[in-house]
Design goal:
The complex is a heterodimer of chains A (about 375) and B (about 350). Chain A has about 375 residues and is an all-alpha fold. Chain A is about 75% helix and about 0% strand. Chain A folds into two domains: about 80 residues, no CATH class; about 220 residues, MetI-like (MetI-like fold, Orthogonal Bundle), CATH 1.10.3720.10. Chain A is built from 18 helices and no strands. In chain A, helix 3 packs antiparallel against helix 5. Chain A is globular and about 70 Å long. The C terminus of chain A is likely disordered. Chain B has one domain: Rossmann fold (3-Layer(aba) Sandwich). Helix content of chain B is about 35%, strand content about 20%. Chain B is built from 13 helices and twelve strands. In chain B, a hairpin with a 2-residue loop joins strand 1 and strand 2. The chains are: A mainly alpha (about 375), B alpha/beta (about 350). Chains A and B meet through helix 14, helix 15 and helix 18 of A and helix 2, helix 3 and helix 6 of B.
Chain lengths: ~375, ~350
């Protein structure tokens, strides 16, 4: 009888066998998403005729549901209760790191919050109780009746000065805040890792010129540089992402260069030379993978930092101007009503704090998990 | 044509203390399938010599000038085009390093690292390269090759790692293997196993082997012929047995005297006094004279040449009769002996 349960309630069998974390998450996702699609059936059915955001939301919904179900079905069939990746012989660096990471409650909490925010962002069209542009007038029929309404059961986080639902706007606003962070860090990583690797490995004049440029960029106060760039161009998403990436890559470059410098003196690098590998191959295929641990940590911390910076720019009125503003811009707009309607500014602010905090927790956890010294001690 | 022929090789390093003459005029030959040992204390220039064979001398700030000639099967390696040199490295001349603990890349499995070397040097498909990787692991005596191939370096013991390093060196089917202190970091028992492995692989594949060590007893177990290096120069060379039984150079005698022996417990250790001077300021005359216990007046002024020894029974010398393969020593004592009595 128990074997059938997993097809109906994925995660429940795991819960009973002591794998509370996996089981709980799976069950929560399964029930939560089913409930969501049940409650907002009309909205879900409309999705295929909607915009890209609706499509993404629909695919996310179906994808996560299918993922949970397949995981539950497969895991039970293959496992019989053993921990995943239980073969002792060949445990990879990443698997080893994950074992350390999952024992760290703060890091796991951070990871949970981050994933929850991104999932909420993707599912915004289904989760948001109102359209972000919808004014309260819609509902009650009275002109500005719902302007700056306090949190209530209809408007969980209240409404703003245009009678728009704050919760809905936060969910939609996440698109800008969260994607800007990812894109800017992705871009700065690409540039930073490449330049840092080259500078560290080749040394000499190339190293000097790259690093002096890095010093130059870092010599400017970051916010001032950002303000200058954004003021120079129209603040579109692209400009913001580019500007943030431009002020972020020097940190990555500096760190990667240091790592590569240390690695290229190691014996395995010399051994690779003696085996006849080309310098390019040694740098990118042999040395760089060894430097990825710290890079991942810095990137994670960087996302939080960038989300904060973007919020700061928006707060200063230089952020992305779109129909649905980012959290920073909501904060900026809510500022004027802080005394009468705290919820307008407080909830976007809380979202920023939570996400940044979560990213920092994940980053700290990764730092511990990927620290080779800790791993070395563990593997003996 | 010899497999490896080194003529008047000089490697000078510019350091802050001046120009270090790390290798200062070395000649020797290594024939196909021959095992030659290179012995010297730290600072004698043996590692620099090994690195210069593969063109691996550190480039950049402390500029290094290799001069002279290193010919591999007649092909000049000094100043060779970088791409051709890369084909030779690993493909025809392979090297096994000292530290098995750090010579493997920690983030990849042992098997994938060996396979990568196989694929680089041989035109094999993925499947064939994989099979070859397992064969190489078996060849170097790693039990349960399939499971070991999927292991990461930190999961293997030092001896296993050194075996894996040897497998990787064999991946390109080289005809010359350079082993630089390859057993120094290992336990004595493992050391013996690895030496045996090197020897068996060398005879089976008919490779040339250049075994570099500070330990005369290590080298004498494996090599047909031994070169003793001091101050960046060969001070004595000859077939292993003759070097051990009738050392001609006081330095060689010193090395033999500082060996421990189980057979002869009453023998006291007689270490060589002093230490190798900095390569930036070699003493004038014979470089060994400040530490030599049989020093002559002449040793302070002039450096002796490598003198061929008469009456040598060395098999190798009989083979070729060319300089650099026979019994030779660099010491004034040998000249005085001939003149005086």
């Amino acid at each position: 009888m128990g074997s059938r349960v997993r097809f109906v309630l994925p995660g429940l069998p795991h819960l009973f066998r002591g794998r509370v974390l996996e089981g709980g998450v799976a069950l929560f996702l399964w029930l939560g998403l089913l409930a969501l699609s049940g409650l907002r059936m009309d909205r879900v059915l409309q999705a295929p005729s909607g915009d890209i955001g609706d499509w993404v939301a629909l695919l996310t919904l179906l994808g996560v549901l299918a993922g949970v179900w397949i995981w539950s079905a497969k895991d039970e069939v293959g496992g019989g209760g053993g921990a995943p990746g239980g073969s002792v012989g060949s445990r990879g660096v990443s698997v080893e790191g994950w074992r350390v990471f999952r024992k760290d409650p703060m890091a796991m909490a951070g990871l949970g919050i981050v994933l929850a925010f991104y999932l909420a962002m993707l599912l915004a069209p289904f989760l948001a109780p109102f359209e972000p542009e919808a004014r309260g007038a819609f509902e009650v029929g009275g002109d500005m009746a719902l302007r700056l309404a306090a949190p209530s059961s209809t408007h969980l986080m209240g409404t703003d000065q245009y009678s728009q639902d704050v919760l809905s706007r936060i969910l939609y606003g996440a698109r800008i805040s969260l994607t800007v962070g990812l894109l800017a860090v992705g871009l700065s990583l690409t540039i930073g890792v490449f330049l840092g690797a080259i500078a560290g490995y080749l040394g000499g004049r190339i190293d000097t010129s790259i690093m002096r440029f890095v010093d130059m960029v870092m010599a400017f106060p970051r916010l001032v540089l950002l303000l200058a760039i954004v003021a120079l161009f129209q603040p579109s998403i692209l400009v913001i992402v580019l500007a943030l990436a431009f002020t972020q890559w020097p940190f990555t470059t500096r760190m990667v260069r240091g790592e590569i410098l240390a690695l290229k003196g190691r014996e395995f690098s010399e051994a690779a030379h003696a085996l006849g590998f080309s310098r390019r191959r040694i740098l990118f295929m042999h040395l760089l993978p060894n430097a990825m641990g710290p890079v991942i940590v810095v990137a994670t911390l960087g996302i939080g930092n960038i989300i904060l910076l973007e919020a700061g720019l928006s707060f200063l009125g230089l952020g992305v101007r779109a129909s649905t503003p980012s959290w920073g811009f909501m904060l900026f707009e809510g500022w004027d009503y802080m005394m009468d309607a705290w919820w307008v500014a407080a909830f976007p602010g809380l979202a920023i704090v939570l996400v940044v905090l979560a990213f920092n927790l994940v980053g700290d956890g990764l730092r511990d998990a990927l620290d080779p010294r800790q791993r070395e001690g563990r593997s003996q | 044509m010899s497999l490896l022929e080194i003529q008047d090789l000089r490697v000078h390093l510019r350091t802050q203390g001046g120009t270090a003459r790390a290798v200062d005029g070395v000649d020797f030959r290594l024939e196909e399938g021959e095992a030659v040992g290179l012995v010297g204390e730290s600072g004698s220039g043996k590692t620099i010599l090994a690195l210069s064979i593969l063109g691996l001398l550190p480039q950049g700030s402390g500029t290094i000038l290799p001069e002279g000639s290193i010919r591999f099967r007649g092909e000049e390696l000094v100043g060779m085009d970088r791409n051709r040199l890369r084909e030779i490295r690993g493909g025809e001349v392979a090297m096994v390093f000292q530290e098995p603990m750090t010579s493997l890349n920690p983030v990849f499995t042992v098997g994938s690292q060996i396979q990568e070397a196989v694929e680089l040097h041989r035109p094999l498909g993925r499947g064939a390269a994989q099979a070859e990787t397992l064969r190489l692991l078996q060849e170097v005596g790693i039990p349960d090759a399939g499971a070991r191939a999927a292991s990461y370096p930190h999961q293997l013991s030092g001896g296993m790692r050194q075996r894996a390093m040897i497998a990787m060196a064999l991946a390109g089917e080289p005809s010359l293997l350079v082993a630089d202190e390859s057993t120094t970091a290992l336990d004595v028992t493992i050391q013996a196993q690895i030496l045996k492995l090197l020897k068996s692989v060398q005879t089976r594949l008919g490779m040339g082997l250049l075994l570099i060590s500070h330990d005369l007893s290590v080298v004498s177990r494996v090599c047909d012929r031994i070169l003793i290096l001091y101050g960046g120069r060969v001070v004595e060379s000859g077939p292993t047995r003759e070097i051990l039984e009738a050392p001609k150079h006081p330095y060689t005698r010193g090395l033999l005297g500082s060996r421990l022996s189980i057979d002869d417990r009453r023998r006291t250790l007689r270490p060589i006094p002093g230490e190798v001077p900095e390569a930036t300021d070699w003493p004038p005359g014979c470089k060994f004279h400040p530490r030599c216990q049989e020093v002559l007046d002449r040793c302070h002024r002039e450096e002796p040449n490598l003198l061929p020894m008469a009456g040598s029974q060395g098999a190798v010398e009989a083979r070729s009769g060319v300089p650099g393969t026979g019994r030779e020593a660099r010491c004034w004592l040998l000249v005085e002996e001939e003149v005086e009595p």
